[in-house]
Design a protein that fits this description.
single chain; about 425 residues; mainly alpha; Growth Hormone, Chain: A; 18 helices; about 0% strand; globular
Length: about 425
């Protein structure tokens, strides 16, 4: 007869995944908050109007996630967490090293970024699979929240710290210099932390964390099962909208700042969004586990997302028109980005855990990978549209985000509570 005995090492394994995820996210958005400065630094290395420009460094993560999401989930489901995340960590270290050693060459930076983009799904798709093996139901939203939190911290570092490591004032004659040094700093940290994470990873604890049946469907059967579930289709809609908007704003944060009239590349819009997200990702999953409720907190988060998106999109209009009061518009955008981050980013870990619960016995990495996949597809469509014709359509896309957020809020009311969490409340 199986014995339930929680291993303290579960927090070490979770921490290993977290540090790897942290560095993956830093590498993703390294150039996003300093896009204009990077354009100057790499001037002559590429055609600014071509597809392979500064913005592609961020959007490449979404593009390659689309290609490698399903193979990564299959690999994790078939060969386990240690091999799956370990492969992602190794590729992350290699990609970061390429960027660190060749930071003055845009082509080499692009090469390293592509390797990093391929690595991403092997790390990101493993969170719910890891929590299912190592954590009891009552701790899984918290554990998934912490795994997601590490991603947010990585993005925050990229947004706030990166501009501090280079010359980011547009009026400075050395504008853009220091990017190669910044890539070396991030590269060393990435290699060290990814290798440490690989050493600390373990597949599963000695004793089971629950007497519930472990998901037993094979990868292809799991996908078929997921597509039969109405609530999973609703989650697909939510992540297509919510994660897509987050990815788009994160990738285009410097362009949005320019649209608002901000002269220097300071990354503060993205930074405050991430600070809000970090606070939300700590508080909301804890409340979800404590009250044993998933739907309620998803509804609250998506409704709260609406004014956050609206504030960023309408900031110029709310201050008298575009260019009339850029400081006022910027202030509104900062407050709104914090609100957006708090609600939409705290919805992420709860949504992942909800999907894992309602789609059982499908493998957890399959349900999580699917939700991340649709968010990457919509994100890359949004980024592409926002960056076309020298950002001509950026304002229109921001307005459309308001409509999409309202649709997402309506959708949350249609989902049913997780049967697993209802059963947990009855214990």
């Amino acid at each position: 007869m199986d014995t339930i005995r929680l291993s303290k090492y579960r927090w070490v394994v979770l921490s290993a995944l977290m540090v790897i995820s942290l560095m993956v996210q830093i590498q993703w958005l390294t150039h996003a908050p300093i896009a204009r400065a990077a354009d100057v630094y790499y001037a002559g290395h590429f055609n600014p109007s071509s597809f392979f420009n500064i913005d592609f460094l961020a959007s490449s993560y979404m593009f390659f996630y689309i290609l490698f999401c399903i193979p990564a989930s299959y690999f994790i489901d078939t060969y386990g967490i240690v091999k799956g995340v370990g492969l992602g960590a190794l590729l992350t270290a290699i990609g970061a090293a390429i960027k660190a050693l060749s930071g003055t060459s845009f082509n080499m930076v692009m090469t390293g970024q592509i390797v990093l983009a391929i690595a991403q799904p092997f790390v990101m798709n493993a969170a719910t699979a890891l929590t299912a093996k190592w954590f009891p139901v009552k701790e899984r939203a918290i554990a998934t929240g912490l795994a997601t939190l590490s991603q947010y911290i990585g993005v925050l570092i990229a947004m706030v710290v990166t501009p501090m490591l280079i010359v980011s004032k547009a009026s400075d004659p050395n504008y853009g210099s220091g990017i190669d040094s910044m890539l070396k700093i991030y590269g060393i940290l990435t290699v060290v932390l990814c290798l440490a994470g690989m050493i600390l990873l373990r597949e599963k604890p000695k004793y089971p964390v629950s007497l519930e049946p472990v998901p037993s469907l094979k990868f292809t059967d799991g996908i078929k099962h997921i597509f039969k579930l109405r609530d999973m289709w609703m989650m697909v809609i939510l992540f297509t909208i919510g994660l897509g908007i987050f990815n788009a704003i994160s990738s285009m944060v410097d362009s949005i700042a320019e649209y608002l009239g901000v002269v220097d590349s300071n990354g503060m819009i993205g930074g405050l969004m991430l600070i809000g997200g970090i606070i939300g990702a700590i508080i909301v999953p804890i409340l979800s586990d404590y009250f044993r409720k998933r739907k309620l907190f998803l509804v609250i988060c998506i409704i709260g997302m609406v004014p956050g998106v609206a504030g960023i999109a309408l900031a110029p209009a709310l201050t008298g028109g575009h260019g009339v009061n850029p400081d006022g518009a910027y202030t509104i955008a900062l407050i709104s980005s914090f609100m957006l981050g708090f609600f939409v980013m705290s919805a992420g870990p709860i949504g992942f855990q909800y999907a894992a619960e309602v789609s059982a016995p499908a493998p957890e990495s399959t349900s999580q990978g699917l939700l991340l996949l649709v968010g990457q597809i919509s994100g890359i469509i949004m980024v592409t549209g926002m960056s076309m014709r020298n950002k001509t359509f950026l304002h229109g896309f921001l307005i459309s985000f308001i409509i999409l957020a309202v649709i997402a809020a309506i959708v949350t009311f249609t989902i049913k509570e997780s049967a697993l969490i209802i059963a947990e409340r009855k214990k």
